[in-house]
Specification:
By secondary structure, the chain is an alpha/beta fold. It has two domains: 112 residues, NAD(P)-binding Rossmann-like Domain (Rossmann fold, 3-Layer(aba) Sandwich), CATH 3.40.50.720; 182 residues, 3-Layer(aba) Sandwich (Rossmann fold). The chain is built from 13 helices and twelve strands. Strands 8-7-6-9-10-11-12 form a seven-stranded parallel beta sheet, sandwiched between helices. A five-stranded parallel beta sheet has the order 2-1-3-4-5.
Length: 317
Amino acid sequence: MAKIFISGEIPDIGYSLLSVHELDVYKGEKLITEEELIASVSGVDALLTPLSTKVTRKVIESAPHLKVIANFGAGFDNIDIEAAKEKGIAVTNTPGVSTEATAELTLGLMLALVRRIPEGDNLCRTTGFNGWAPLFFLGRELTNKKLGIVGFGKIGQAVAKRAKAFSMDIYYTGRTRKTSDIEEKYDATFMDFTELLETCDVITVHTAYNEETHHLFTKEAFTSMKKDAFFLNLSRGSIVKEEELVEALQAAEIAGAALDVFEFEPHITDELKQLENVVITPHIGNATVETRNEMAKLSAQNILSVLEHKRSLTPVY
């Protein structure tokens, strides 16, 4: 029987699958600290961790029996991959299962932003309004607008599929151009990054986070966008230089922004909270019952595969 530590509570299906082994689960209200994590993994064979937990070199080196780190999330920038490789520890993630939920939230945030739904809700709950009027509380339509998708993987494509239902024109950019069959499937046109910024009415980010995409969106990017364009980020917070996004919004360089992720997460820049043309949500892109159950299931299956000396289902490397 192996020892497994889970550094944050997960859906019950995960516990059920792993119950053949000895489980220890961190149930604190706050995120587990590095010191607590080090103390908890010293004798374990497997670690299942949410992507909000930093698995540093120090943590990895304190776990001599560790065979697998199963990340509860598609990303894995919270884990010191090089340290894990050096120790021969398998690292897994949960790609794919978040696609539909994240795409749905993207369209929800898009509508909330351009139609000013949170502003309207707040108005109705506070001062109220004087009734319908021709020029009152005008927003924008998505119909016939140009949507620019930065990162056209599974999530970006799922967003495109939904956006077509709003009669949006689809453009995308990324490191490589997709095959003609994918472009035809989504009626999507490839553009380089600069052209996409200058052309599109709504820009949504779904690219992977790495050294190349760190601070991909800075003052230069925002000033390249149309002044009536909207910006969304549902990828990773550090893709955006948050201070310069705030400056662009305050200077009306762009029309508004919707963010589900933040550069200094879980801290949110105070100025973002004060701007009416900003919609913010607490990193809930895949926060649905259905998706989180699938993530728990896949994380557990990855651990079981490695403990049974098999290849994991979704290895990071």
